[in-house]
Amino acid sequence: MSIISKKNNSFVLVKNIDSADETQKIKVKVLVLWKTYKSSGNTHEMGTRIHAQVEEDLMKKHLTVLKEGEAVSINTFQLKDYLGEFRTNPYPYKITFFRTTKVKAADDFLEYYPEKYFSDFENILSGKLDKNVLVDVIGQIVNIGPMEQIKTKGKDNSKLDIILRDTM
Q: What are the residue boundaries of the Replication protein A 70 kDa DNA-binding subunit B/D first OB fold domain, all occurrences included (predicted)?
């Protein structure tokens, strides 16, 4: 499928976004919003089939529209490489907002969408999955280990080991 330009007021599918084109327009449903703390300041992040990162000062501008479970249209944004550990999806780019990014409620978004993108135990245990991409699983908790204090990248963190059993 070819990219549809904004000129005819159409939207581009996430899988067809062109990283060189900053004039595209997409519709997405915000599945999860969370706040991270970085040395450059706070950022708000949205995770779905594409990850978006919004700096704190820009998030304030869009707080009334960017809400979990809500569909929005987004235009005038930039795609940046999405690399490293703990990515929310395998897509190679993430969205970043400009001061000129426009976000509006989208009331005509498809009703059906996968709630989560579950991975089955077979794929996890076989090692086929990218270890840098977070996955969702459903299983029965068999054992919970003790809370451990560990250092990650020089910072203190808590770690909890949980053993799951496949319920299928």
A: 19-105
